[in-house]
Amino acid sequence: MSLHLQIITPEKTVFDSEVDQVTLPTTQGQITVLPQHVGLITTIEPGELIYKKHSKENFLASGFGFAQVTKDNVKVLVDLATPEEELQEKAIEEAKKQAEVALAQKHLLSEEEYATAAANLQKSLAQLKIKRRHRR
Predict the structure, then answer these.
(1) Could you tell me which residue ranges the ATP synthase F1 complex delta/epsilon subunit N-terminal domain spans (predicted)?
(2) CA 124 centroid distance within chain
(3) Are 130 and 64 in contact (CB under 8 A)?
(4) How far is residue 98's CA from residue 24's CA, in Å, rounded to a whole number?
(5) Same domain for 54 and 10?
């Protein structure tokens, strides 16, 4: 038995294939979805999205979004989904620094600008964690 997994960002469909299982970073913690899972809709937060295909684990950095789970399908709609091997540590470090600088000037930011900077920092930290944990 397998699951059909779709990972979609505003720019493109990042992944669309059959998998054995998928682990999602939700606001309630990580959940692992296997075939015949109970249906649900959940919020995705920046973190590590892992899918297993043919006993091989594949890692992606995910951003904010949602996932819809049915008994044989998982659809993930997120603002960021980057395979671990495509993560560029230098660029991520720069984005992290920019977000930290913006957050340090909190008094100059609108609520929307502050929320954007905080979200960017959270996504950068998640990407760095994945990149550094899976260094080869």
Answers:
(1) 3-80
(2) 11
(3) no
(4) 27
(5) yes
d(CA 84, CA 34): 22
- Total domain count, the chain: 2
Q: Give per-residue pLDDT as tens, 13-63.
A: 999 999 999 999 999 999 999 999 999 999 999 999 999 999 999 999 999
Q: Do 11 and 40 lie in a common domain?
A: yes
Task: Record the pTM.
Answer: 0.79
pLDDT of residue 134: 62
| pLDDT at 46 (0 to 100) | 92
How far apart are alpha carbons 76 and 80 in whole angstroms? Answer: 11
For residue 135, what pLDDT band results from cuts at 50, 70 and 90? low
Print the domain residue range for 69. Answer: 3-84
Burial class (CB in 10 A: 0-12, 13-18, 19+), 64: middle
Contact 125, 96 (CB under 8 A): yes
DSSP 71-136: TTEEEEEES-EEEGGG--HHHHHHHHHHHHHHHHTGGGS-HHHHHHHHHHHHHHHHHHHHHHHT--
